[in-house]
Amino acid sequence: MIGFFRFLKGYLRIRVWGYSPERFMNLCCNHDILLWDIEKCADGSYNMNISLSGYFQIRPFVRKTGTKVAVLNKFGLPFFIPHIKLHSFFLAGIVGTFLFLFWTTGYIWKIEMTGNDKILTEDLMEFLEEQDIKIGSKKNIVQVEDLEKALRTEFPNITWTSVQVEGTKLWIQIKENDKIFTAEEKTEEVSDLVASKDGIVSSIITRNGVPMVKAGDEVKAGDILVSGQVPIYNDAGEIISYQLYAADADVYLECSYRFQATMPISYILHEYTGKEYKSLYLKLFDKEIAFPDYSDKENCDITQDRKQLEALEQWFLPFFYGVDKYTEYNPVKAKYSKEEVARHLNEEINTFIRSLEEKGVQFIEKDVKIEKGNLQWRATADFLVIEKTGETAPIKSEETDEEDERQD
Q: How far is CA 296 from the centre of its chain?
C-alpha cells in the first residue's frame, strides 16, 4: 500500500556524491525528508530514492554539505500522465477496443450444431430464426430449457438435445432417433392392410386378420391384402358378426421400377491460363470488403479461405477474414467420351439401386439402355424386384356395405 501511494505522488532515484554525502542524508532525515533503498557504490557515492516533493527541498542541504545530486530515474503517476497526453489517440484506441470487446460478449456470433445427420442444418437454422435466434442476437434471449423443448416438439425425430451458450457461441447438440419405422410395425387402431403399389403377390404370411389374396395374385394399389374384419360363425356356419383387428402381415410383391438419368453431350472445359489473383477479404457484422476486388472478373474459378476471429476459447467476434483466390481460365467447348458417359450414368443408376436395397428391396432382373439424343445422353433402367408392401387403411364395415347395396 505504501508503494502505491508513493507511485501516486511520484518519486526519483538519485545519486549523491561529493564532500560529505553522509551529512547530506542526516540533514534530510532531520527535516523529515524520507530517503529509502539507500545503496553505497564502490566509488563512495550513494544511490537512493526520494519523494518528488522532498527533491525540491534539498537544494540548501546540497550547498551546505558540498555534495552533488543527479537524477537517475523517474517513477510514478506525475511522470506517466504527460506521456499519456502525447499518445492520447493511441490510448483512446485501446480503451475503445476493450469497450468494443466487452460489448460483443453480450451477443451470439457463432452457432454450431452437432449430431444432426438426417435433419438438415438449414432447417434447424430456419427454425432458430423463427424463434428470433440468429447470428447477432443477444444472449439473454436464449432460454435454454424452452429452446430444447421447442426443438423436440418441432422435430419429432430428435430424442435428446442440449443447448449451451459458451462465450459468444451457441452450441446445440442433437441426438436423432435411429429406429427405422417400417410397415411391419403394429398399430393399435383397427385397420385393413392394403397394397401400396401394383404387382404380383410373391408371398404372404398373415399374423392378424383375414388374407384376401394369395401368392400369384395380381393386385392394384389400394386393393385389400389382409382384412381386419374376422368373421364369427354360429353352429350353422353362418356369419353372425365380425371381430375387428389391426390387420398385420408380411406381404411381398413382384413389381417393376423404371429409372431414368440424363447428361449433356457437351460441356465447358476450363483451360487454365496460369494467371491467379488474390484478394483480401474482411467482414465486420454485415459489411463486407475485398481488396483488390476481383468479383467482376469473368472466367475465373474462385477458392475462398475464410475464418472467424476468436479472441479467446469460445469467444468469437463478428469479424471474418480470409483470402479469395481467383484462377483464370479459357472456356473451351468439349464433348464427353462414351466411357465418361457410361461411368457417370452407371454411377447414378447404382446410387438408385443402393437406395432401394437399403429399404430391403431384392432385385431379380435389370435392363439398362444408354442412348444418345441430339442434345443429351439418356439412360433408362428397368428393374424387376421383390419388395415388401402394405399400408394401413380404415376398415369399411360389412354393415356399411349392406347399406350401400340397399341404396343402390
A: 30
